[in-house]
Design goal:
The complex is a heterodimer of chains A (247) and B (237).
Chain A lengths: L2 H16 L5 H17 L2 H22 L10 H40 L2 H7 L4 H39 L4 H10 L3 H27 L5 H31 L1
Chain B lengths: L8 E12 L2 E12 L3 E5 L6 H8 L7 E6 L2 E2 L5 H8 L2 E4 L11 H12 L4 H14 L15 H13 L5 E5 L7 H18 L2 E6 L2 H7 L2 E6 L2 E5 L4 H4 L1
Parallel strand pairs in B: 3-8, 3-9, 6-7, 7-8
Antiparallel strand pairs in B: 1-2, 1-4, 4-5, 9-10
Classes of the chains: A mainly alpha (247), B alpha/beta (237).
Chain lengths: 247, 237
């Protein structure tokens, strides 16, 4: 399959999965399961990553900008804040969720494909796109922005705490830079990105799972392809949204 | 031996052909299933029996021909029409295709949850009744991983029965089972046909099973189908 037909097939899959009767009364519990699976189960990982992102951002910013002594210390809060809200929070959260969830979605759906469970849904007149893909896409769409907000808060909190206790930049100074140079566009631009990211993460997981033919080996390949594709698409979309929102 | 024509038949398979690249799997296959009768398709492994079964219900596309179920062409129906038709069909997969993440009750209840407006309590009661019919009472909370191969097959039959379908399709229902479980499943299939008047198609490579459950026997070999007598004479004779 060449690149063009792959993109067409992927887009067709996304449209087929979303533009169908949602039947929310039947699908609601599955969506909540996915919000739990993608959101709550990813939370420990996201918190660990976000903590270190906050710490590293603070140390690096102090070293590169504020450490020279020519720039006021509140710039630390300003720089770390914008870095985390615009870029690091949304992108790293999306990449972590890609690694954790796109692969598991592809493996789960791929296994269902090779063990005829998807055929069983078809035979029972249950649309497998609505039953398997739609809840994952909506669940990820809900969970990833929430995870991103939590990750951003966590990164800024630990960044500010580290600056206060180890780098001699008090909370009040850090917060001054963070709050006085806060632009809603940074925060909401970052959140808009996560909406796109969440769609490609869930779609990649479902798409490669659905396309599995064969056995265990192909399921493994599908999981790998899902993560690689989701990660690449996250970075491409990051660039495209940056062009539109921030340029 | 009586040869059935399309009059009074509920399923008509008309000249269907299917090939995978150069290999012809089904070559103008035709047969009919009369009301409340079980048709058995015999044949060695790898002859395309499962492909034929999946083609009949529209899970696998055919290159030529069509299948008429209840007067409706499977191949000419759109997705909604096919889904409506499939609510009259129960299908038992060779590998059972049970959902690993669901327990027995949830597996059997899934079609009811999706297609009926029954309350949770009514669904639970119906699932318990169906499990009694297939001989698995009290196993509602077990997961497929804790069941034996034969029990999984019974749950798969229970799931196929949950919407009280008019037609039942079985893909190798007794393959790989011990003689006791095999006998149990054969009796269940015969009872479902006799007591509940379910029409259907069974594919198997086991002549003994075919004789025990089939009203009409066919043999599929090299893509062609031929009707057999009750002792499978044309095939094994």
């Amino acid at each position: 399959m060449n690149l063009f037909s792959s993109i067409t097939d992927y887009t067709g899959f996304l449209i087929r999965s979303v533009f169908i009767p949602w039947r929310l009364a039947k699908t609601r519990s599955m969506i909540l399961d996915q919000v739990f699976d993608v959101g709550i189960r990813s939370l420990p990982l996201i918190l660990v990553i976000a903590t270190f992102v906050g710490l590293v951002s603070t140390v690096q910013t102090l070293y590169q900008i504020v450490g020279s002594g020519t720039v006021p210390k509140y710039i630390l809060g300003y720089t770390v804040g914008r870095m985390v809200l615009i870029e690091l929070g949304p992108v790293l959260t999306a990449l972590m969720v890609s690694g954790r969830c796109a692969s598991s979605m592809a493996a789960e759906i791929g296994t269902m494909r090779v063990t005829e469970q998807i055929d069983a849904l078809e035979v029972m007149a249950v649309d497998p796109y609505r039953f398997l893909c739609l809840p994952r896409i909506i669940g990820t769409f809900i969970a990833v922005p929430i995870l991103t907000i939590i990750a951003e808060f966590d990164a800024l909190l630990f960044g500010a705490a580290y600056a206060n206790y180890f780098l001699g930049v008090p909370f009040s100074v850090f917060n001054y830079g963070l709050i006085h140079f806060f632009f809603p566009r940074d925060f909401f631009g970052g959140l808009i990105k996560t909406l796109f990211f969440s769609v490609v993460i869930a779609t990649s997981g479902c798409y490669f799972g659905f396309r599995v033919k064969g056995g265990a080996r192909e399921v493994g390949h599908a999981a790998t392809r899902a993560v690689v594709t989701a990660s690449i698409l996250v970075l491409i979309l990051d660039f495209l949204v940056a062009l539109i929102v921030f340029s | 031996m009586q040869l059935y024509t399309s009059g009074g038949c509920v399923i008509e398979v008309k000249e269907i052909s299917k090939r995978f690249e150069e290999i012809v799997v089904l070559d103008h296959v035709s047969f009919t299933v009369p009301e409340a009768k079980l048709v058995v398709i015999l044949g060695p492994s790898g002859t395309g029996k499962t492909v034929l079964l999946k083609s009949i219900i529209g899970l696998s596309a055919v290159d030529e021909g069509e299948v008429i179920i209840d007067g409706q062409s499977v191949q000419k129906s759109d997705r909604n029409q096919i889904y409506e038709l499939r609510q009259k069909i129960g299908f038992v997969f060779q590998g059972t295709a049970l959902f690993d993440s669901m327990n027995v009750r949830e597996n059997v209840a899934l079609p009811l949850v999706e297609h009926s407006s029954a309350s949770t309590r009514e669904i639970r009661e119906k699932v318990s009744r169906i499990l009694e019919i297939v001989g698995l009472p009290g196993k509602e909370s077990m997961y497929p991983r804790a069941l034996s191969g034969g029990m999984k097959r019974l749950v798969s039959i229970a799931r196929a029965l949950s919407l009280d379908p008019k037609y039942l399709f079985y893909d190798e229902p007794t393959t790989g089972l011990d003689p006791v479980m095999k006998d149990r499943i054969v009796k269940l299939i015969v009872n479902l046909r006799k007591d509940y008047r379910k029409s259907g198609v069974v594919v198997t490579h086991d002549l003994e099973t075919a004789r025990a459950i089939g009203d009409i026997l066919y043999m599929l070999k090299n893509g062609r189908i031929a009707q057999l007598d009750k002792i499978g004479k044309e095939y094994y004779g």
